[in-house]
Amino acid sequence: MKKIFAPGNDSTMTSLGLLVLRLWLGLTMLLHHGLDKINNFNQMAPMFFDPFHIGHQASFCLVVFAEAAGSLLLAMGLLTRFAALTLVIDMAVAFFMVHKSLRGGELAFIYLAGFVALLLAGGGKFSLDCPIFGKCGKGATQPKRN
């Protein structure tokens, strides 16, 4: 588990870039999409797109989880890769199954790119993952030599 969630051996500038990306995408998703869905849950859930045929409300709950909880976790840098994965799935469904093109789904496509980058890179040194799952200094992820 620690290997999945531990931050990599990033430079300070790389970690600063990851912090900016996490905050920018995470807070924008939370404030413009997640909170709106929470506040309008009863109105939106009954008619929400159901791509996996699990029910409109269940599909909506998964999206609310990704766009509210996932984006908050991402911004905090807590379970960054898990949070990014939930948002990658959310944006992939939005782009490939709902919008189906760049014409109407450009925003989902751009979010998807940023979340994929964070899924691959992790949260960096300036994340809560750092003290919880791994040491944060140079050489932290290097294997021990016998």
What would you report as the Rg, rounded to the nearest angstrom? Answer: 17 Å
Give me the number of helical elements: 7
Query: How far apart, in Å, are the first and last alpha carbons?
Result: 23 Å
Major sheet characteristics: none
Beta-strand content:
under 5%
Fraction of residues in H or I helices: 55-70%
Q: Overall pLDDT, averaged?
A: 89
Total strand count, please?
A: 0
| Poorly predicted segments | 139-146
- Which secondary-structure class do the elements indicate? mainly alpha
Task: Write up what this structure looks like.
This protein has about 150 residues and is mostly helical. It has one domain. The protein contains seven helices and no strands. Helix 5 packs antiparallel against helix 6. It is elongated, with a radius of gyration of 17 Å. The C terminus is likely disordered.
Secondary-structure map:
Blueprint: H1 2-5, H2 12-39, H3 41-44, H4 56-76, H5 80-99, H6 102-121, H7 129-133
Helix pairs in contact: 2-4, 2-6, 4-5, 5-6
Give the tags.
146 residues, mainly alpha, 7 helices, 70% helix
Describe the structure in brief.
The protein is mainly α and 146 residues long. Helix content is 70%, strand content 0%. Helix 2 (12-39) runs antiparallel to helix 4 (56-76) and helix 4 crosses helix 5.
